Amino acid sequence: MDMYILSIILASVAIFPLVLKMFSPYFWDDFFYLMNLVWVFVKFGKRRRRKPLFLVLDRYFEHTSNHPDKAFIVFEDKSFSFRDADEKSNKIANALQKYTELKEGDTVALYMGNEPAFIFTWLALEKLGCPVALLNNNIKSKSLLHCFSCCGAKVLIAAAELQGAVEDVLPSLREQGVSVFMMSKECSSHGMESLMDKAEEAEDSPISPSRREHLTSKSPAVYIYTSGTTGLPKAAVITQDRLLAALVVLASNRVTLDDIIYVNLPLYHAAGFLIGFIGSIETGSTIILRRKFSASQFWEDCRKHKVTVIQYIGEVLRYLCNTPKANNDRDHKVRVAFGNGVRTEVWREFLNRFGNIQIREFYGATEGNVAFVNYTGKIGAVGRVNYFHRKLFPYALIQYDTESEEPVRDHRGLCIEAAKGETGLLVSRITKIAPFVGYARNDQQTEKKRLRDVFQKGDLYFNSGDLLRIDHQNFIYFQDRVGDTFRWKGENVATTEVSDVLAMADCIQEANMYGVKVPGHEGRIGMAAITLKSGAEFDTIGVFSQVSSYLPAYAWPRFLRIQDSLEVTGTFKQMKVKLVEEGFSPDAVPDPLYFLDDKEKRYVPMTQEIYNSIESKRR
């Protein structure tokens, strides 16, 4: 009898994994994700309780002390160790102390592209206890001034190649009493000073911790800009607490000290800065830093530097898939890719072509209070519903009316949760664990992101502005964005900002910007309906000059349609739904259509030939 019972027990143990896989195929994925979640909270909690306040900077100091000669940044065949970065940042910090009146808590705007000086300068400012506004190095003119002003910065530090853009707004900056430094050895422009020469002459002695002794967990650490329905970028406030939480993103996905991380996404972006840079400070990994993404050089860089971890946005993987196939496509050491926005078909193609790379697709807004990560590898999903995650960060998908652009409410005035399989607006409860800090100097836009009376009177949720769907297996899928912002080439394009720039052209009376789908491309590309001033003719060269002078390339409207008048609602909101549906087909649009020709640097009449080349992905 004992042998019989033992046999049953052994048989049960043997078949248990098979039964588990049949009825709960993601059990172990969910289990290990939960363990990671517990690890993150324990680690974060310990650091949160440390006195004095534990900063990201302190984690960097730990690596500098433990392995000072390990490569921290590799850039264009130059390598900088943790000790090198520490000394260079000390020099910049000491120079700023000598030549400015910066105090703890004073904001400094950083207007630079991807280069080691960006990281050295950020470390220097963190040592001085100064929050840093990360300005998009593509913006200029009105947008640059707006971004600078809304963070209240007292100092602007800009890359040498951006001197022209700074000079354009220098009179306004001088009126505000702003100190302007160029990251160069000399600067002849009146009202601007060079910084690199001053830093080279400065001592590399450590900065006293007293410079940051009054910082709290709620003190602003970084301002990262995000476009919204207002049309101009908003400065999302990243507190010291939020920055501390960002430390664990890579580590919680098993990235270690031995990994080499390829960072080619902009450091002014949340993905490049918070995940690529800050995440690497936690793990102590080496960063291979590139000025900008290059599809043709991507895998050569990965092979040359033995990269193991890469970052992406949806377009990055598509660009890589569109490069000519080569025999050495799988000859690399990349094992994991972090990012968001990759389309299902591109995901599959990428894995088939470049090998068994773990795709860690995630969802999260810069200013948001909830995030998801696809820890199972399920193609197309951005995450998975997990009971404990949902308890810690209460979120829901609610029914949303895309016509009225408002959540659907019942007779009690409360929101209605979307059913499984139904697309809904993601909202997340605002709590102490999941706060929503909002935008710097912009109470109006901060309040717009707060949604009240969601499931009971008086409750308060963060409105993500994103439409998601949860399937019957509890996988979460991103569907679309709501409002006036659309995404192109990994950047958020604010329609109002583009419309305002178009309306500044001499021949244009009014403009209505929106995004349209283009075959083979992720996101939406810019298109605008415009009306002309009385008696004016469309200036194909002048309008191109207007948009290229005031807007980054990803925000240029690629298609224009000229109308007699723009349709508006009863509350004078511009109508976009019909325009989006009609797209840019000459057969579907009765109005004159134009296409932005990069080579001719002008708008040219949209022909059936051009349309066919776009549809067939030849343009």
TrEMBL record:
KW RNA-binding (keyword) present: no
Entry keyword set: Cell membrane, Fatty acid metabolism, Ligase, Lipid metabolism, Lipid transport, Membrane, Nucleotide-binding, Transmembrane, Transmembrane helix, Transport
Enzyme Commission code: 6.2.1.3
Enzyme kind, highest EC tier: ligase
GO biological process: long-chain fatty acid import into cell
Matches recorded under Gene3D superfamilies: 3.30.300.30, N-terminal domain of ligase-like
InterPro entries: AMP-bd_C_sf (IPR045851), AMP-binding_CS (IPR020845), AMP-dep_synth/lig_dom (IPR000873), ANL_N_sf (IPR042099)
PROSITE patterns: AMP_BINDING (PS00455)
Alphabetized CDD domains for the sequence: hsFATP2a_ACSVL_like
AMP-dependent synthetase/ligase domain mapped to chain residues: 62-383
Main subcellular localisation: membrane
Cellular compartment(s): Cell membrane
Entry GO CC: endoplasmic reticulum membrane; plasma membrane
NCBIfam families according to UniProt: PRK08279.1
Family affiliation: Belongs to the ATP-dependent AMP-binding enzyme family.
Protein name in UniProt: long-chain-fatty-acid--CoA ligase
Native source organism of the sequence: Synaphobranchus kaupii
